[in-house]
Amino acid sequence: MNQPEPEREAEPLKLRERAYASFTERLLAREIKPGQFVTQRELVALTGLPLGAIRELIPRLEAEGLIKTVPQRGMQVAHVDLNLIRNAFQFRLFLEREATALYAANATDAEIAEQRQRHEAIIARAQAGGDEALIEDAEDVDRLMHEAIIDHLDNDIVSKAFRVTWLKIRLIRQYETRIQNHILVPVMQDHLKIITAIEARDPLRAAEEMSLHIGNARTRAMNY
């Protein structure tokens, strides 16, 4: 009996998404390194997925700027340089400044209160001396706040573009630092300034605080 058409179409889509997720996970885990040259066969070995899925993955990675084809050398993973830092943070600024202003005007009180609670909990743990999970949890709180502000726009195009840019920011942080202890509290305090402006329902001030926060992150990255 023939398989229904929608199911036949769904399976390749699942494979493409699995291939993308596997590639990005290995990139962030440094199993695939920025600037590294890779072949399709090597990606098959790294991801454990079939060659067909990898071949379909390549155009997406090229379109997102995560790899590029170098004549006579093959595929090169995006490498961290000043151009990537400048472009990624500029793009974040364009997206997040406007998104923050709209979030300040439209987010629910409960959403805002949850953001404050998460950040204050991270600061309290850091000031108490920290723990093994603190850095990872702080990175999650950081990401979740930015994603919440972007996703509040309810615009799939913007949300997808933001996540690709965030992946590049993560690559930059691998060279810079993760949110390590010496910058963890200042980053959380930057966020709390944004949250305070959002609580006051002051879109202009919230957007300005977000701009300052992104500028601080860009400066740290440029210094490294």
Automatic annotation (TrEMBL):
Keywords from the named record: DNA-binding, Transcription, Transcription regulation
Family matches, as InterPro entries: GntR_C, TF_FadR/GntR_C, Tscrpt_reg_HTH_GntR, WH-like_DNA-bd_sf, WH_DNA-bd_sf
Domain HTH gntR-type: 13-80
Gene3D superfamilies for this protein: GntR ligand-binding domain-like, Winged helix-like DNA-binding domain superfamily/Winged helix DNA-binding domain
GO molecular function: DNA binding; DNA-binding transcription factor activity
Domain of life: Bacteria
Keyword Zinc: no
Protein name in UniProt: GntR family transcriptional regulator
Organism placement in taxonomy: Bacteria, Pseudomonadati, Pseudomonadota, Alphaproteobacteria, Hyphomicrobiales
